[in-house]
Every structure is written in structure tokens, then in C-alpha cells.
Write a structure and sequence with these properties.
The protein is an alpha+beta fold. The protein has 5 helices and 29 strands. The protein has a 5-stranded antiparallel β-sheet with strand order 14-15-16-17-29. Helix 1 packs parallel to helix 3. It is globular, with a radius of gyration of 27 Å.
């Protein structure tokens, strides 16, 4: 006679200490759990509601400037250090951990038009309305020493922007033309120009470091190669581009902030039409900056708000605004992908969370597991009408809400007019123009 003996391993059900959780045996056979999807849906709904309840993105305001904040720069080696330049020529260095100003420099007469840090983090450069380029040490001067720049270059015209090469002691300025400078020389290595209008912004590509992009006031976005000392090609848009930012993960992708309330993501190999048109702002977009992951970017607008866009989506996932915040002139995404800084013309720099409902500080393992589980549930049920409505709803200031409504009516009227014109015209005489190609005038090579 065969006898079956039950044998159990105590490790499967006995706790090691009394502080451990009790182990519960579970059978995951779907036949035994007929209401599993219904339960998961309820959990996803609750998680989405709680996410909106805990969405408190504003962290702090860094005040101290006596005029509007015109530009900012990140420290390449230190997460807690950020630099800001104001319209009265003052430059301040901030410690984000302590949330206070650690150094103040009266750098220029008039506006500080642009600033950038050297790739090694030992010094930074500023340009201003007084036609000078100044290099400053990152460390504060010793006790008794004067606050003096390391180098000063006096130019012939006003410089409107500056950016430093990511690996070499070379920087570029823009104004009447794009100038490439060696740090050791007082005259530019080469000057690049295409057209006659002033250039508002210049940016080095972080991956293909010899490539530059610039935005001119004659509606051009011009691409240059530093090795050839000549412009590569340019794209002409319907309205002026204020600035651009290169994707830090994809060498050919850049996003341009335009005066027509939109942002355009281009692939520099195919400038005939943008990869994506990002619409949501209701006034001119003044600045844009990518997250270090290259998956999202943040934009600052004249409509007193900042928006976070996924790179592959046409509409923003988040909008930040406060009652006191005025026209946002500059914006930066910190290098740890957690925070956003914005400078506006009412003299404040504001610190925001990149993920509005994220809990700051150290998470317990169970908290982390619950958070990941809730995130997966939200992704699984994201297209259900109730969950989608709650996740996408944002409260907006009355002015922005009314302008969005007005623009929707205008867009619908234009669409209706085009349909009527096509209906009453000869077939083929009114062609269909995709939204992406409507805003491009020409590409010149």
C-alpha cells in the first residue's frame, strides 16, 4: 500500500522574525478571481483621484532680484547650484538645497542677455547690453578680494545670447552674426552669417558637439557646422522663433519655441515638415528646455504659465501657474530630472516638481511597490473615459481659459471656411495641407 505524506517547507510560511509580514499563499488562477478586472479598475480610479489630490507642484520661490529675471544657467557638475541674470545687469548664484542666494555680482550695465557655464564647472560667461563678454570664476573671491571678471572682451555690437561647447574651450555668441570664440583669444575664430537680421539665440548640440542652431528675427532657424565654418541649411517659418533646444538623447532632434503660440520639434535631416507641432499655449512661447531623459520638455510662455510636453505628443501633460507669476521669460529642467526652475518678470525664480504628485524624500520599499503598482494600473486603464477625464482635467486661470475657448472657435471657423471653399471649388483646386506643413514657408540649403 502506497502512503502519501504531506511535506511542507517551513521557509514558505514561517516568518523569520515577528516584525516580518505574514506570508499568505495565493492561487493566481483567473477562474478563481472572476472580479479581478473590476477590482483593478476601482483601484486605478482611486489611484488617479489620489494623484490629483496630492498634485502640489510648487515648492519654493527664490526672491532677491531687483528686476525681472532674463536668463538662467545650470551648473554642469553641481545639482544644487543655479545661476540667474536679471534685467538690471545683476547675476546671482543660488544654492537650491538651502534655497538662498550665495553670491551676487553686478556684471553688466543694462540687461544680462545670456549666460552659460563652462563644461568643467570652474567658470561661467555672461553677455550684456554693454557689448561685453565676461568670464567669471564659479568660486566666491577670498576675503578682501574684489569681485572682478577673469576676462573681459569688448565687442562691436550688442550680444543677445551665448552658449559653450560641451567638450572644448570654445563658446559661441550671437547678435548681428554668430561668432565662434576661443577662450584664449580676444577676437572670434570665425564668424557665421546667413541673412542680415539679428540673431536672438544660439545653441550647441550636446551629442554632435560641432553642430550649432540659431534663431534669427527674420523667421529663420539656421544650422551651422563649426568644422566647415559655413551654414548648413535653414528653415523659414511663418512667424519668428524665439529660441531652440537640442534633445540631449537624440542627436538630430531639436524643438523651437515660436511666436505663433506653438512649439515645433524638427529632425534636422528632414526640415520640410516638423516631427510634431505642440499646441496649448495662448501666447508667444519664450523659452524651452529638455529633460535629461530626452522624453519631455518644458516651455515658458508670455501667457504667465509653463507647460510640460511629452516629445511625441501634440498637447501638454501638465500646466503650472500661480496668481503672482507674470510673463515667464526663462525656464530650466534640472539635471536630476526631478525639478523645474522658471524665471519671470516679477523678479522671482520658482522651483517646481517635474512630477506634480511625486512624494519627495526617501520611500519605504512598500511605498515604492505600491507606487509602481498604482502606476501600472493607471497605464492599463488610461483610456477609460472616467479615468481619462480625471487625469486630464486642470484648473486654469480665467484669462487662459477664455483665450483657449476663443482660439478653439477661431480654429473651427477656419476649418469650416476651408471645407466650404473646397466644396464650392473645382476638384483638386483647394489642396489638403497637413497641420505640420502649414507653418513652414521654405527650406534653403
Amino acid at each position: 500500500m502506497r502512503v502519501k505524506v504531506l511535506s511542507r517547507n517551513p521557509d514558505d510560511y514561517v516568518r523569520e522574525t515577528k516584525l516580518d509580514l505574514q506570508r499568505v499563499p495565493r492561487n493566481y488562477d483567473p477562474a478563481l478571481h472572476p472580479f479581478e478586472v473590476a477590482r483593478e479598475y476601482t483601484r486605478a480610479l482611486n489611484a488617479t483621484k489620489l494623484e490629483r489630490v496630492f498634485a502640489k507642484p510648487f515648492l519654493s520661490s527664490l526672491d532677491g532680484h531687483r528686476d525681472g529675471v532674463n536668463c538662467m544657467a545650470k551648473h554642469p557638475k553641481s545639482l544644487s547650484t543655479v545661476l540667474s541674470g536679471a534685467c538690471d545687469g545683476e547675476v546671482r548664484i543660488w544654492n537650491l538645497t538651502k534655497r538662498q542666494c550665495i553670491r551676487t555680482i553686478q556684471a553688466h550695465e543694462g540687461f544680462v542677455r545670456g549666460m552659460c557655464a563652462r563644461f568643467c564647472g570652474t567658470s561661467f560667461f555672461t553677455v550684456g547690453d554693454d557689448k561685453t563678454i565676461k568670464q567669471w570664476k564659479m568660486e566666491s573671491p577670498e576675503y578682501g578680494e574684489e569681485e572682478e571678471p577673469v576676462h573681459t572682451i569688448l565687442g562691436k555690437t550688442v550680444y543677445t545670447g551665448i552658449d559653450h561647447h560641451w567638450k572644448e574651450p570654445v563658446f559661441a555668441t550671437c547678435g548681428h552674426q554668430v561668432d565662434i570664440w576661443d577662450e584664449q583669444r580676444t577676437s572670434p575664430k570665425c564668424s557665421l552669417t546667413w541673412g542680415f537680421d539679428s540673431i536672438s539665440s544660439v545653441k550647441f548640440n550636446p551629442i554632435e558637439t560641432y553642430l550649432l542652431g540659431s534663431c534669427a528675427s527674420d523667421r529663420n532657424i539656421v544650422l551651422y557646422d563649426m568644422r566647415k565654418s559655413t551654414p548648413l541649411k535653414k528653415v523659414i517659418l511663418n512667424m519668428r522663433t524665439n529660441t531652440l533646444c537640442w534633445n540631449p538623447m537624440e542627436a538630430f532632434i531639436f524643438t523651437a519655441a515660436n511666436e505663433d503660440y506653438n512649439l515645433y520639434t524638427f529632425d534636422m535631416r528632414f526640415l520640410e515638415s516638423p516631427v510634431m507641432v505642440h499646441m496649448d499655449h495662448v501666447s508667444a512661447v519664450l523659452d524651452v528646455d529638455y529633460s535629461p531623459t530626452g522624453k519631455e520638455f518644458v516651455s515658458a510662455s508670455f501667457d504667465k504659465s509653463i507647460r510640460i510636453f511629452p516629445v511625441d505628443k501634440g498637447h501638454s501633460r501638465e500646466v503650472y501657474h500661480t496668481k503672482r507669476m507674470q510673463h515667464v521669460i526663462t525656464v530650466k529642467w534640472t539635471s536630476d530630472n526631478k525639478y523645474i526652475l522658471c524665471g519671470s518678470d516679477e523678479m522671482n525664480i520658482r522651483l517646481w516638481k517635474a512630477n506634480a504628485s511625486e512624494k519627495l524624500g526617501v520611500l519605504a520599499p512598500r511605498e515604492k511597490a505600491a507606487m509602481n503598482y498604482n502606476q501600472k494600473l493607471k497605464e492599463k486603464f488610461q483610456f477609460h473615459p472616467q479615468i481619462r477625464r480625471i487625469a486630464q482635467h486642470r484648473h486654469l486661470p480665467k484669462s487662459i481659459y477664455c483665450q483657449i475657448k476663443e482660439q478653439r472657435i477661431m480654429r473651427e471657423a477656419r476649418r469650416r471656411k476651408e471645407l466650404n471653399r473646397r466644396k464650392h471649388s473645382k476638384p483638386g483646386s483647394v489642396p489638403f495641407v497637413p497641420e505640420r506643413k502649414k507653418h513652414i514657408v521654405a527650406v534653403v540649403k
